[in-house]
Specification:
The protein has 7 helices and 6 strands, in the order H-E-H-E-H-E-E-H-H-E-E-H-H. The protein has 243 residues and is of the alpha/beta class. The chain has a single domain, classed as Aminopeptidase (3-Layer(aba) Sandwich). The two termini are 30 Å apart. The structure holds zinc ion.
């Protein structure tokens, strides 16, 4: 059947409207390292950059199935600077930014998982620098008020980041066991600097540990970790029920 031009126009208008009012929350996942930066070397021959990409892809598939929009900072084995990673999240106006990493230790003796949020100092130094860098002045307020509003927003972001970090630790505890819980830590992790949304960095385990490294290379372990991350993220960002 040939559709009339009017019907086509109406359909186009409807789809444009739907796109503009997309209620799905946007999560940016950052698979750590990549390309020439292999990250930590695992016991079973895999590198951190491979594990983080595999995890990020699985978390994405899980979140998309739950009704989220998800963007990866890298889809392949590409080299990215730290700045480029957070810039993806800022440019897309992400609701959350989660950088995924695996750990290594001297002597290969440590194991467990931990989640980092920025220190207050890190947030402070970078927040202002970023506002001037991105050049998006606030409309209708003077400079002093804008600074106060920036502080309030950064405070709220930090609060939510901490909440997400605790949720990630809780979900990982459920699948990896309580003994490995190294807790929520504060650090001036450079990949989180400049994020304009709640941002965390999760170290899912020690890829170089003789036992944990082997576990992390297994698809079943990766699937469990990915599900834990997706569950923690979706708990933070409810999806609007379809009408
Ligand atoms: Zn790393």
């Amino acid at each position: 059947m040939k559709s009339s031009p009017l019907l086509v126009l109406a359909a186009l208008a409807a789809s444009a409207g739907a796109a503009a009012a997309d209620p799905r929350p946007l999560v940016v996942l950052d698979p750590g390292h990549g390309g020439s930066n292999r990250g930590a070397a695992g016991t079973s021959g895999i590198f951190e950059k491979q594990l983080t990409l595999a995890l990020a892809r699985t978390v994405r598939d899980d979140l998309v199935a739950r009704g989220y929009d998800v963007v990866l900072t890298r889809e392949h084995d590409a080299t990215l600077t730290l700045r480029q990673r957070v810039a993806v999240a800022n440019r897309r106006g992400a609701d959350l930014f989660v950088s995924i990493h695996a750990n290594a230790s001297a002597g290969r003796v440590q194991r467990g998982y931990e989640t980092f949020v920025l220190t207050a100092a890190g947030v402070d130094v970078d927040g202002r620098a970023l506002r001037s860098e991105t050049g998006t002045p606030r409309a209708g307020v003077d400079a002093a008020t804008a600074l106060v509003l920036d502080d309030v927003e950064r405070g709220a972001c930090q609060w939510e980041a901490a909440e997400l970090a605790f949720a990630i630790q809780r979900e990982l505890r459920a699948v990896r066991g309580g003994a490995g819980d190294r807790g929520v830590r504060q650090d001036a992790h450079h990949v989180l600097l400049g994020a304009t949304m709640p941002a965390v960095l999760v170290e899912v385990g020690f890829i170089d540990h003789p036992i944990e490294g082997q576990e992390l290379a297994r698809p079943a372990t990766q699937a469990a970790i990915a599900r834990a991350l997706a569950t923690a993220i979706s708990g933070m960002l409810p999806v609007d029920a379809p009408p």
